[in-house]
Structure prediction request, 633 residues.
Amino acid sequence: MVTTWANRRKTRIDDLATGRSLGADALVRLRRNPVAIVGAVIVGLFILVSIFAPWIAPHDASQSFPELQEGLRPDVIPGPQPGFPLGSDQNGRDFYSRMILASRQTLLVGVFATLIGLFFGVLIGVLAGAFGGWVDTLLMRFTDVLLSIPSLLLAISIAALAAKPSQTTVIIAVAIVGVPVFARLLRGSMLAQRDSDHVLAATALGVKRRSIVLRHMVPNAIGPVIVQATLTLATAILDAAALSFLGLGDGDPARAEWGLMLANAQAYLDVRPALAFYPAIAIILVALGFTLLGEALREALDPKGRR
Amino acid sequence: MTTPLLEVADLGVAFTRKGEPDSVAVDGVSFDVQPGEIVGLVGESGCGKSVTSLAIMRLLPERGVRVTGSVRMEGTDLMTLSDSAMREKRGRDLSMVFQDPLSSLNPVIEIGLQVTEVLRRHRGLKKDAARREAAELLERVGIPDPRRRLDSYPHQLSGGMRQRVMIAIALACRPRLLIADEPTTALDVTIQAQILELLKELVADSGTALVMITHDLGVVAGLCDRVNVLYGGRIVERSERHRLFGTPRHPYTYGLLGSIPRLDAPPGEDLAAIRGSVNDNLPWAHACAFAPRCPRALERCSEVSPPPELAGGRFLRCHNPVPAEA
Prediction:
């Protein structure tokens, strides 16, 4: 059926009549934004690849191939050949498979670190914004301390505290870095909400404090935090890669992880730069994807941009 | 006279700030409201109308504000009530409608939820019953197709509709007192009239007393039984509506009435205005605050605070009132 002007007009009126939330409205605007689409495509591809990695990757991450190992010389690492689209890594393993399998680690670390950071950040932000007074002061000075340390330095310090570096310590370190950012942001918009007319109106109607905080303040204040979470995913991925690169992650050489691969490729930069190039590009692309999506999301959710 | 529903006695509100003198917003305001009565609180911007209403509802921030005096509702002093007891009263016994209906509704949740929230809180209704009641309430305030509207978000309604929703929410639990703080200021004139008519009808139906806070004398004329005229945080004149409009005694009231533009004025005639602005006040403690702007000011006016006088059902605070037969 041809979409006529009248038709479109009608659906628009129906939309208005049936009620569309701010979220739905933002989605519509997101779909019209090319930046958002580019971001979403990168992120979508990344997520698909990492979910289906074991089926896409032709080989195992730790499997060495005699035919590749034969070609290894101190100054030669075999390049692309039939069966191995990206050639060999420094240990005669399939580089292509390792690249694909590594996406899982990155997604896992990024998502978990962000979610954990989000959880505690929101908790602190809600408490500070809802109670104010000394609770607010105490919590905010704590976040100030965390914020005053450069994020990567903080992550390195925390990860370095761990007795045995592992993926879990990386996740925890990156999560802690995110906490003060979320807490600060939420607390700020909670304060703005506390002075808003509709919160005053709800108070005037005798609505309980808990409902005022959870139903009237948090849903109105959470928008910027959700956007920040998308942006934090990008930095979390970068930070996690940096930690692995610096040897503060799980050091198991059999494990495929972009940061670690990048670190290991250093020694072979003059022999086969592709070993560093591909993981680096992957990290940058994924971080870029989340950043683009996050920025577009921020624009779409900005109430000033409505209508 | 029966016992008043609301008795505001010597209410004072001062905003305090370290290292600065207090700024007094409300200075010994006393008035009462009878059950079912509509009382007006009139004055220009900054005279303390809204602060008075917020003080009655105990909605002023606790820090930086000093509230004195008493507000008794049906014998209970609201000022000494515990926070939780006050929360029980708000919305159930006394309720409030605000000026801007868009910002007074929560933008991210549906209208229906906002109406049922109050019903469930104060009347203990279950979800379905509350929804049915909410639809009825919306119908009563004249919202067409109320069942569908329950799922609408505030931004999908017009200004007038939103104010109707606010009124529905405020009256959901049949409070005995409703405070309306400039409920029609943000609306256009035709809608204003509808909303005022609606308010009048609803409070008459449910026997709710209404405190109407406005700067618009037209609103007062059409609605209120008694009118309090506020200036600089004090009531300068109070009277029954017809008497106030017929023979204003305080020069400020007189000036306010005179400054209403008239359609039948000869073309080219200047609009009457009260000269100066609210900022030109003298302190009430040892003068009449209105003296610097008053056309009838005597020397005494800037030296001695005019005492309150009650004569013929009229409360007046003036050294040199406009003659009754003027």
